[in-house]
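ok new one. same drill as before - structure tokens go in, u give me an amino acid for every spot. 549 of them this time. try not to just spam alanines like last time pls lmao
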């Protein structure tokens, strides 16, 4: 024993010395457990302020707030996943930022802090301890906007989630040692001493246990994840109520019109002959779709009679019904395609129902962001006109969510609304904020969207996402603009006008929306590009008069 003690003594002395001088703190090292280290806080004290722990910053926006809340300060914590974070952008254009601007403008006598606690890929159960932590920081309001990442986390971090309690405690303890973290910091610096230029996109491997290939039809798994979601939401609301802190729930929405399902599978028990018959009917529909929508619909209906659980078939049916002008039926099938997606990376209807039920039972206000954005979309079917990918709203979408939250705050009597912005004042304030971000801000978002598409193997379904009509090309053009792809926007909008000159109405409407978002330069560019495209197109009988308006 003496020999063991003598052998360990240098390590114990070194550990004590590192702790004495504040070296090798775990919150300053990259988190090896991807946020599952239960000893690692989200915020750490630094002088008079709390700031986001360095170890958390790959997943969270860096935030700072005073340890002692200033007088006349209204402090809000927003929790959720990458939508709250602001992806594919950053926190500067998340609804959290726009909410802070709205509240401050309505009540200049107070200061407002809206602290963004959106964690990239964070599911609701990982938010529970973070909400408990935030209740120590004198919040006046907590906002919960969660539900997209429940199935993503359960696959991506399955190995960490299923650790035994003993292993979890040992690993948490190991990564709390200063010697371990100092060694990890040193190794990290050694690796980056001769940096290599890396591709901004990930090359995914379908055989990875945590990747796309791990998703299969599993109703029992869905039920377990759904139950865990409800338990997590109820726990967070209960904790806030016990602390006397008001909480607002947000029901998030998703891209329906321009997002094919990530993965489709047939129902169990389908025979080989049935699968062959299904495939033949489906392919007949695919072949007919470009030129004969009714014939395509007939082929898809025949396939549906054999197997109605295939998500991609639902999406094809929706798109065909959409082209035939049968929008209410199309909406049903777009929604079914989302619900039957074997790789469910968009919030599912049972989760939205849970949020509504918890809100009704607890009296917590519910902001229905899904309905809010859908109401702005043609036929109440949102696509690339409001979402930049499968779930992340564009800047205008975030602004509308913020305005709805501000209205709820005022309606609840939590804050006074002593003055109200005019639309012109709001546009100027939005524009001033966006000018500080620079043009690179938008193209960086395109790189992040490409990363997700690579992980999810979206190239396998690239043809499914291609526009099939003028409205689709216009929505694609709007998305390209939001992601800083000016050339892509010009090409898509030109194709929209070539397919149907009436698309100029959609383009003009989008230009007006961009002005309202505080992006007058983008609005002017959109108008100019559409005018140039119209000038290059031969005028046909029945075309609307050409105008840059």
């Amino acid at each position: 024993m003496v020999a063991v003690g003598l052998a360990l003594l240098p390590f114990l002395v070194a550990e004590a010395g590192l702790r004495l001088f504040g070296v090798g703190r775990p919150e300053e090292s990259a988190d090896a457990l991807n946020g599952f280290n239960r000893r690692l806080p989200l915020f750490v004290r630094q002088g008079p302020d709390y700031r986001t722990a360095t170890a958390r910053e790959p997943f969270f926006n860096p935030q700072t707030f005073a340890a002692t809340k200033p007088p006349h300060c209204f402090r809000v914590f927003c929790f959720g996943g990458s939508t709250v974070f602001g992806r594919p952008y950053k926190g500067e254009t998340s609804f959290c930022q726009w909410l802070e601007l709205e509240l401050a403008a309505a009540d200049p006598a107070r200061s407002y802090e809206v602290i963004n606690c959106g964690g990239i890929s964070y599911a609701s159960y990982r938010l529970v301890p973070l909400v408990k932590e935030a209740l120590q920081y004198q919040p006046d309001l907590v906002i919960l906007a969660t539900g997209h990442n429940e199935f993503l986390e359960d696959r991506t971090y399955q190995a960490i989630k299923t650790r035994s309690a003993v292993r979890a405690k040992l690993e948490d303890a190991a990564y709390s040692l200063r010697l371990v973290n100092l060694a990890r910091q040193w190794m990290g610096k050694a690796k980056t001493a001769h940096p290599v230029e890396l591709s901004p996109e990930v090359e995914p491997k379908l055989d990875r246990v945590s990747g796309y290939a791990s998703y299969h039809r599993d109703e029992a798994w869905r039920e377990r994840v759904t139950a865990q979601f409800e338990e997590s939401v109820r726990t967070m609301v209960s904790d806030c109520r016990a602390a006397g802190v008001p909480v607002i729930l947000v029901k998030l929405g998703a891209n329906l019109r321009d997002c094919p399902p990530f993965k489709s599978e047939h129902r169990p028990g389908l025979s080989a002959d049935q699968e062959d018959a299904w495939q033949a009917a489906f392919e007949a529909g695919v072949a007919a779709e470009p030129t004969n929508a009714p014939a395509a619909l007939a082929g898809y209906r025949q396939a549906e009679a054999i197997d109605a659980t295939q998500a991609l078939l639902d999406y094809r049916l929706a798109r065909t019904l959409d082209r035939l002008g049968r929008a209410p039926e199309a909406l049903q099938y777009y929604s079914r395609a989302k619900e039957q997606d074997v790789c469910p990376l968009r919030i599912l209807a049972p989760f939205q129902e849970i949020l509504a039920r918890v809100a009704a039972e607890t009296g917590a206000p519910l902001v229905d962001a899904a309905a809010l954005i859908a109401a702005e979309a043609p036929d109440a079917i949102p696509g690339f006109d409001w979402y930049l990918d499968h779930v992340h709203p564009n800047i205008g979408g975030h602004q509308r969510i913020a305005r709805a939250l501000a209205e709820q705050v005022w309606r609840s009597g939590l804050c006074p609304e002593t003055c109200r912005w005019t639309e012109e004042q709001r546009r100027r304030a939005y524009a001033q904020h966006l000018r500080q971000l620079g043009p690179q801000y938008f193209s960086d978002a395109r790189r992040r969207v490409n990363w997700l598409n690579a992980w999810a193997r979206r190239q396998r379904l690239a043809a499914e996402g291609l526009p099939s009509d003028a409205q689709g090309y216009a929505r694609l053009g709007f998305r390209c603009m939001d992601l800083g792809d000016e050339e892509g926007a010009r090409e898509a909008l030109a194709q929209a006008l070539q397919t149907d000159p009436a698309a100029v109405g959609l383009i003009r409407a989008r230009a007006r929306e961009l002005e309202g978002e505080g992006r007058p330069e983008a609005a002017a560019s959109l108008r100019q590009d559409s005018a140039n495209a119209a000038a290059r197109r031969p005028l046909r009988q029945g075309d609307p008069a050409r105008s840059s308006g």
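The radius of gyration is 26 Å. and btw The beta strands are 43-46, 49-52, 64-66, 73-80, 111-118, 141-145, 247-251, 366-368.
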